Each structure stands twice: as C-alpha cells, then as structure tokens.
C-alpha cells in the first residue's frame, strides 16, 4: 500500500470515488467493509488456486499520460503462477510485437489483473505493480507451461497490492469447450452402456 492509503481498498476508492459513493448512498456500507478489512493484500491459498486454474486473463496498464490499455493473455491452466504470497508471474509469449504493455510498464509500473471464471460466475480484481524481466532463464523455466507450444519472450512479474472478489451478479454462465466436450463424451458413453445392457 502507498503511504497515503489507510485501507487496501484505497487503491481503488480514491477521494473522488468515495465522494460519488457518498452522493449515491453506498459509502456507509463500504466504510463498514473497510473497517472489517475485507480486501486482501496477500495471496491466500484460495486465490492461488483460482489464479492457477485460469486459462485466460486480462492485464491492464496505463502509459505516462494515463492512457489505459488492456491486454489478453492465455495459456493452459497454471500459466499464471503464484510465486509467493505477494507475487504472480507468467511467461509472456511472442505475440503481435506491438509491445504496448511493455512500453507502458517502462513508464508506469501500476497495473491491474482481471480474472473471470464464467462457469462458476466468479471474478477477481487484483491491483499492483508489474515489471518485465528479460534474460532470466531460470525464472522463465519456472513459469513456462510444460509442453506448451508457444515461444516465450520475457517474464512479467506482478506484485500484489490489494485484491477483491466480486459477486456473481450479471456474469453470464459459460463453459470451456473442452469441459463441454468431456461432459458430452461421458453422456454418450453412458447412453451406449445403457443400450448394451438393455439388449
């Protein structure tokens, strides 16, 4: 947390945000939340499990002028790893080579991760600071998913400042294609077994 922050949620609840909350009637409930310490500042076992199950994440950065940018990153489960109770990391694979995220982080290390699990209708918001690490073969080997056919270019490390879990309201329930295919194959196997037994 920055020195001027009292609560972990102050990373998002700036004075302007709090003024709007007061005007719209939600400030009192958020004051109770702040006093109860509901936002976390460390990676808990539950967050680690959620993070390492993800196959798709969104990383937000902003340049020196404050212009925001959101980049999608994906890979097999575990491509985003918790390295300790304050640090997340992933191997950054070669993509379209625009390097907007890298340029933004060179000017402004503040970053944000948005993770969403559509099947279970859960989303996690993580505030922190990110940095690019190049030329660290050992770290790259730790973060590179085993057997994944992608070419890593650098590592991105994310130091967690605060995180919060949102309610499931308005999250559409969707399922991964592989999960649907597995469920259908299991159903078909069961149907074939029942048909064989009924003959």
* Number of beta strands: 7
* CATH homologous superfamily title of the largest domain: Electron Transport, Fmn-binding Protein, Chain A
User: Helical residue percent?
Assistant: 25-40%
**What would you report as the Rg, rounded to the nearest angstrom?**
21 Å
Structural class: alpha+beta
Please give the oligomerization state of what you see.
Answer: single chain
Shape, per Cα inertia axes: globular
Tell me the count of domains. Answer: 2
Q: Which strands sit side by side, in order, in the main sheet? A: 2-1-5-6-7-4-3
Assign the CATH class of the largest domain.
Answer: Mainly Beta
Q: Termini, distance in Å?
A: 68 Å
Which features would summarize this protein structure in a list?
199 residues; Pnp Oxidase, Chain A; 6 helices; globular
Short description:
By secondary structure, the protein is an alpha+beta fold. The protein has helices at 15-24, 27-36, 45-53, 100-107, 137-143, 177-198; strands spanning 56-62, 68-74, 81-82, 87-93, 110-117, 122-133, 152-166. 20% of the residues are buried.
Explain what the structure shows.
With 199 residues, the chain is an alpha+beta fold. The protein folds into 2 domains: 1-39, no CATH class; 40-194, Electron Transport, Fmn-binding Protein, Chain A (Pnp Oxidase, Chain A, Roll), CATH 2.30.110.10. Helices cover 33% and strands 29% of the residues. It has 6 helices and 7 strands; from the N terminus they run H-H-H-E-E-E-E-H-E-E-H-E-H. The chain has a 7-stranded antiparallel β-sheet. Strand 5 (110-117) and strand 6 form a beta hairpin. The mean pLDDT is 90.
């Amino acid at each position: 947390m920055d020195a001027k922050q009292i609560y972990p949620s102050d990373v998002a609840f700036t004075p302007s945000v709090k003024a709007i909350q007061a005007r719209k009637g939600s400030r009192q409930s958020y004051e109770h939340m702040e006093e109860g310490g509901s936002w976390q500042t460390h990676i808990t076992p539950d967050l680690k499990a959620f993070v390492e199950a993800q196959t798709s994440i969104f990383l937000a950065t902003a340049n020196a002028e404050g212009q925001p940018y959101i980049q999608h990153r994906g890979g097999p489960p575990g491509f985003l790893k918790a390295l300790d109770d304050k640090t997340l990391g992933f191997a950054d694979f070669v993509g379209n080579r625009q390097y907007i995220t890298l340029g933004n982080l060179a000017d402004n290390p503040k970053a944000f991760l948005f993770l969403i699990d559509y099947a279970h209708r859960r989303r996690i918001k993580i505030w922190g600071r990110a940095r690019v690490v190049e030329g660290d073969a050992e770290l790259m080997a730790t973060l590179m998913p085993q057997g994944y056919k992608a070419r890593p270019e650098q590592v991105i490390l994310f130091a967690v400042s605060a995180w919060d879990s949102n309610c499931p309201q308005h999250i559409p329930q969707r399922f991964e294609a592989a999960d649907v295919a597995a469920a259908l194959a299991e159903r078909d196997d069961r149907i074939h077994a029942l048909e064989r037994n009924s003959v």
